[in-house]
Amino acid sequence: MINLTDEKMDKTTKKKKKTAECCGYPISIFFIVVNEFCERFSYYGMRAVLVLYFRYFLLWDDDLATSIYHAFVALCYLTPILGAIIADSWLGKFKTIIYLSIVYAIGQVTMAISTIHDITDANRDGTPDNFTFHIALSMLGLILIALGTGGIKPCVAAFGGDQFQEHQSRQLNTFFSVFYLCINAGSLLSTLITPVLRAQECGIHTQQQCYPLAFGVPAVLMVISLVVFIAGSGMYVKTDPEGNIMWSVCKCIGFAIKNRFRHRSSSYPKREHWMDWANEKYDKLLIAQIKMVLKVLFLYIPLPMFWTLFDQKGSRWTLQATTMSGDFGAFILQPDQMQTVNPILILTLVPIMDRLIFPLIQKCGLNFSPLKRMTVGMLFAAMAFVSAALVQIEIDKTLPNFPSSSESQLKVVNTYSTTLNVTISPNEHLLIESFGSSADYVTFDHQDITVSLNTNPVITKAFSLIKGGRQTLIIPSDPTVMYLKEDVKSKPREGKNAIRFVNGYTADLNITNLDSIEPSATTNYTLVNQGKRDFVLRHGEQWCEFSRKFGFGASYTFLIPSTVFSDDCESITEVEDMKPNSVHMALQIPQYFLITTGEVMFSVTGLQFSYSQAPKNMKSVLQAGWLCTNAVGNIIVLIVAELGKLPKQWAEYLLFASLLVAVSIIFSIMAYFYTYIDPAEIEAQVRKEQGLEPEEMEKETLEMEEKDEDQKNEQGVKQTKI
Ligand SMILES: C[C@H](N)C(=O)N[C@@H](CCCCN)C(=O)O
């Protein structure tokens, strides 16, 4: 009984509780922003290496890896609804954050364990023997992570907002910007660090890419995030959950619809709002609160389109970067590192916007309301995609002319001792020097060809080409055994270079990191990174070394002559199968700048707007609704990627840009009719109309809670009696 009274005292005095302040800000928010920094480091760090883990550890193909990745992101933005329900109707935000963070940390640890190949690598060949085990464990880890990260997401932002008193509205706005900066600082550091950790080698039996470290560090950060949050425990303003609010909302909406349907005849007088049909049974305050939430949720309908474009930074834009050159002189940027431009720009743009641009616009007497900012944000994102389309057109000009699905392409490489006249039926004549190749690929719209060489006697051989493929006809020192070798028909992944060797030497050769090659044979392609690479060729005691400097995304065939050891590798010839990328990655900076400006206007503002327009007891619900727009956006990416295969990538970018412009026009019309509200004022007004002063209202709630408590106690007694 004493405890109950204490609790009640706490509840009634809570509103007046003054939190410790520093420079006008509650000190407790320090713990919240540090917690957010660590959590976002954990999330983005894990996400940065996830696709590569799917692709190169679980050995999934590109399509499956991309689909599971986007499905995971979508799940992360669907679970906020669950988190909001738990917080608002059961545990309260504080406890929800703690419990779900524990789930999250367990998920990260599970994920890190699933990446230890040694667990199932019984034959010690460096690859796991039991993929099912690793897949099952990593999927379990990802589900727990999605539950954790999504579940706490609406609560942390809203819990931060709860720390502010009414007179701190200016500080509250700054808090949301600082909050966003912390998200991006975490994201920036982790996307720079975890790929480096992954590139390390580690293992018990064999040394492999160090995924356990790349996933382990985010797991540690998640534990730190939890510890920091708990450390601030004594300082927080903790608002209690207001009962099963979601259930009450659903029942109230259901009743309003049913009641409206029952009274559909024109003889019943119309009501101002369809929710007013719940008046007969439900509290006016609840109805007023639902109206506020529905108004905002309605406004959210067009928003997923923004995220559809925004989240393609991680997929389409990164793929675009793999066809570009990342040589910045002082440093080399990998295609997936280009994404770090976004958080870097956020860290620069948020202060500039907050301190300079928005105040300047205000000084000019322009009303740049939150919804106007969001519309402009959408237009910026659309412009970013126009910029991406222009870059794509430039890239397309430099890309090889790959065969269509009905065509075949052929190149000829001559390692015979003299120049050859090669005739490919019916009318293709090529003159190819010894240790040279045809200038480019010849395209055929049929697959069956006959090749004749002007040797003495003439050698003729029939071949069947691969439909939609690129091949090289290798003419070795004995031309009678000429053969076809399949070539790469797309840019090598991750901006790497595909290289292979044709052995024109008279005996087996060993080349660094490659299996031994027989005379006249051609190796399969090996991928090498950009930069200077050294190769050592060896046959018995003889050896020589040769070096080549590689750019990005090229493909070469190296022809090794019989004189290779006598001239110290000098005579090795290089045939360029595919030119290196020539469009510079710096050209992507404008599109990153535009999308990030759009993000500042749209996302930071949307976060503040969702908090400010929500009634006190439904703040997490609206945050969850806001995050849900993101989930839908990712689902749209999945659908478009699967269904809408446009032949040209630049056309797809323009399609997305046009769709977003259309959606932003619709949104601006909806925003025009939206009137900003002060939820607290509306609630006070409704209470007044009901003849209740705020204090009385609180008392009434307490009395109801006390009754509930007594009933529960009585039931407990009855149950123990039974
Ligand atoms: C890192 C990125 N710039 C960012 O700020 N992300 C925010 C908003 C996410 C919404 C889109 N996926 C975050 O909370 O992670």
Tell me what the structure shows.
This protein has 722 residues and is an alpha+beta fold. 54% of the residues lie in helices and 13% in strands. It has 18 helices and 20 strands. Strands 5, 8, 9, 12 and 13 form a five-stranded mixed sheet that branches. A four-stranded antiparallel sheet has the order 7-6-10-11, with no helix packed on it. A four-stranded mixed sheet has the order 16-14-19-20, with no helix packed on it. A hairpin with a 2-residue loop joins β17 and β18 (542-550). α4 packs across α5 (131-162) and α10 packs across α15 (619-643). The radius of gyration is 32 Å and the shape is elongated. Mean pLDDT is 87; it is low at 1-16 and 697-722. The structure holds ligand LXM4S7IT. This is Solute carrier family 15 member 1. Residues 688-722 are annotated as: Disordered. The chain crosses the membrane at residues 64-85, 97-119, 131-152, 172-193, 213-237, 292-310, 374-393, 621-641, 653-677.
Helical content (DSSP H or I, runs of 4+)? 40-55%
Gross morphology? elongated
Largest sheet: 5 strands, mixed
Intertermini distance = 23 Å
In round numbers, the mean pLDDT is 87
Low-confidence region ranges: 1-16, 697-722
User: How many alpha or pi helices?
Assistant: 18
Bound molecules: ligand LXM4S7IT
The count of β-strands is 20
What is the alpha-carbon Rg in Å? 32 Å
Beta-strand percent range: 5-15%
* Structural class designation: alpha+beta
InterPro entries: MFS_trans_sf (IPR036259), POT_fam (IPR000109), PTR2_symporter_CS (IPR018456)
Main location: membrane
GO cellular component, one term: apical plasma membrane
Keywords: Cell membrane, Glycoprotein, Membrane, Peptide transport, Protein transport, Symport, Transmembrane, Transmembrane helix, Transport
